[in-house]
Design a protein that fits this description.
The protein is mainly alpha-helical and 116 residues long. It is built from 5 helices and no strands. It is flat, with a radius of gyration of 17 Å.
């Protein structure tokens, strides 16, 4: 139980620290947020839990492919906000576009025989 609490605490603290830093400097916050800290932590936790490098490798490969459609959010959100759309509408639409991009990527990868 202490192990899971530690995992949750470390992961949560990182997210809170990044959001607090972003309040002071959007650049520094963006640099920290763009570093794949959550992915690295997930790989560390997975390895510690399973000692299975094949699972870690599979996770890393899947993360690579799924980063691509996640970029849709970071393109559409600022565009929608600059158009004067309300924040919650912009974020909702951006998430919707991103979900569509995920779906499209999975369909294309499946077509080419790439399994995530």
């Amino acid at each position: 139980m202490i192990y899971y609490t530690t995992k949750i605490a470390i992961t949560t603290i990182l997210i809170v620290v990044i959001s607090e830093i972003a309040k002071r400097s959007s650049f520094v916050g963006a640099v920290l947020a763009s570093i794949p800290l959550v992915s690295v932590l997930a790989m560390i936790w997975l390895y510690v839990d399973t000692k299975d490098v094949e699972k870690v490798s599979s996770l890393a490969t899947s993360v690579f492919w799924l980063v691509l459609p996640s970029l849709v959010l970071f393109v559409t959100l600022p565009l929608l906000l600059k158009q004067g759309l309300h924040f919650y509408a912009s974020i909702s639409l951006s998430i919707g576009f991103t979900i569509g991009a995920y779906w499209l990527l999975v369909v294309v990868l499946n077509y080419y025989g790439v399994k995530l």
